[in-house]
Amino acid sequence: MLKEIVIAVQSWGEAQRFIRQHRLFKWIIIPGIIYTLLFIVGMFFFWSSADNVISWVSRQLSIESWLQNKESEWLSFMFVMTGMMLRLILVLFYFSLFKYLILIIGSPLFAYLSEKTEAIIEEKEHFFNWPDLKKDCLRSTRLALRNCLWQSIYLIGLILLSLVPVIGWITPVIALLMEGYYFGFSMLDYSFARVNFTPAQSISFTGRHKGLAIGNGILFYLMHVVIILAPAYAVIAATLCIHKVKNS
Fold first, then answer.
1. Residue 12 CB: number of other CB atoms within 10 A?
2. What is the CA radius of gyration of the chain?
3. How many domains does the chain have?
4. What is the pTM of this model?
5. Which residue range(s) make up the domain with 89?
């Protein structure tokens, strides 16, 4: 799996050179601006509401007064850490839902970019085909809804686990790896659709090559330092990644 993660990471570097060489920035900037604005506004409101909910629960359970009566620095530290882990998991949960919304809304662009990237790699002329694009969008939407359901189930379990002192502190790492896997899976599937993989075959292949999905997804999260580039870069990097794996 480590080798596959390295391949996925290298593909992001290749995506940068590929985009510059073939002048694809026009397919990145405008969708990127829309994505960035939605992300910042959504994250602001979610963080505020999540913080209010946690504070309300803490007041209802009288946790702060109980800690003051105990006068234990160790207990206070444990509850502060637990609260931080819970907030991180809730943020990732929001990010998960937001990500699937973007995958559904942006599926026409992502499918087109993946097709165009593969056509350039294979030195073929790219023709816009609406029926094929529509089919890929419907497939992407169904896959996104399927992954959203399973990931939500796992994240609810992690939210509960995050309430357990010490053990719950590892939950953000598990959640981040899971986020990376499911996002990368969605990006890889555009390439699978073009080689006529059924959804079951796509799920099976990605399950055997988790590193490709995790590597692509984790780089997607790291690219949020420059949010505007993240989604389109992920699609192009995933297409380059699958092309490299097919050839090997």
1. 22
2. 20
3. 1
4. 0.73
5. 2-247
Question: Alpha carbon of 201 to those of 71, 195, 230: distances in Å?
Answer: 57, 11, 27
Residue pLDDT, tens place only, 3-46: 777 777 777 777 878 888 888 777 777 777 777 888 788 777 77
- 199-236: string of b/e by CB count within 10 Å (b at 16+)? eeebbebbeebbbbbbbbbbbbbebeeebbbbbbbbbb
C-alpha closest to that of 240 among 6, 5, 2, 10: 10
Helix axis angle, 230-247 relative to 210-222, nearest 10°? 150
